[in-house]
Amino acid sequence: xxxxxxxxxxxxxxxxxxxxxxxxxxxxxxxxxxxxxxxxxxxxxxxxxxxxxxxxxxxxxxxxxxxxxxxxxxxxxxxxxxxxxxxxxxxxxxxxxxxxxxxxxxxxxxxxxxxxxxxxxxxxxxxxxxxxxxxxxxxxxxx
Amino acid sequence: xxxxxxxxxxxxxxxxxxxxxxxxxxxxxxxxxxxxxxxxxxxxxxxxxxxxxxxxxxxxxxxxxxxxxxxxxxxxxxxxxxxxxxxxxxxxxxxxxxxxxxxxxxxxxxxxxxxxxxxxxxxxxxxxxxxxxxxxxxxxxxxxxxxxxxxx
Lengths: 143, 152
What we know:
- The structure holds two protein chains of two kinds.
- Chain A is mainly alpha-helical.
- Chain A has one domain (2-142): Fumarate Reductase Cytochrome B subunit.
- Chain A has six helices and no strands.
- In chain A, helix 1 runs antiparallel to helix 3 (47-70) and helix 4 packs antiparallel against helix 5.
- Chain A is elongated.
- Mean pLDDT of chain B is 83; it is low at 1-7.
- Chain B is of the alpha/beta class.
- Chain B has two helices and six strands.
- Chain B has a domain at 54-144: CATH 2.40.50.140.
- Chain A binds chain B through residues 3-4, 7-8, 10-12, 14-15, 18-19, 22-23, 26, 30-31, 33-34, 48, 70, 72, 75-77, 136-137, 139-141, 143, and chain B through 7, 9, 13, 16-17, 19-20, 23, 27, 30-31, 33-35, 37-46, 110, 112-115, 118, 141, 143-144, 147-148.
């Protein structure tokens, strides 16, 4: 049951990470909610991005818990686990960066946004590596 | 006096533009798939829905591609193990059959849900590959089911 839970939470995380990444691009140029209404501020428009971003780190912990508590983590390829661990640490860094970025008047905002972008690219790359090495579902279905 | 607004706004989190609704729909579809695909793949694997029965295995000729659930009984050398063929029972569990199979595998064999060190006596595996002459199976994929499959 633990394996199934880990597989499900892993794929839910893939969808959430992809959504969190895509939302700022989608919402950046979003029109006002109704014609004639005032265009919401950037922070207001990015609210779904913030909430999804905050939910990823705890969900990652939920995802790894069965493998750690039931001990079958020892059966999993170590390289993939290192990639996943690094991605987990980067999600925490990403949340802290996101919190700093909510300060719209910050002098270092431009630089922080660049770091936020490359941290996202790092998380996405590491997650793809982890799925490729440790993910069982695709290999069971198509392997 | 204020009249009623012509358009009643929905919940704040619900997108009002068609692009937003499309995005929300895609995310919901993705979440449904994220749950359905693992449930489908894992349940089929753990309950042996794809496993060949003892009779199907007996009827298969050399060169035929088969998928079979086995319990490793001996590992006489690296890249070879002897296993008892497991039959799927009605309750989604496995039961031991009288048929044994020798399985050859190597570095080109895909190992899923485990490592090479998990292929040891007592391990429950799903082996896929081609039947060779005799009771040999040349495995191209081994799924480690130990701890996840029930043998009664």
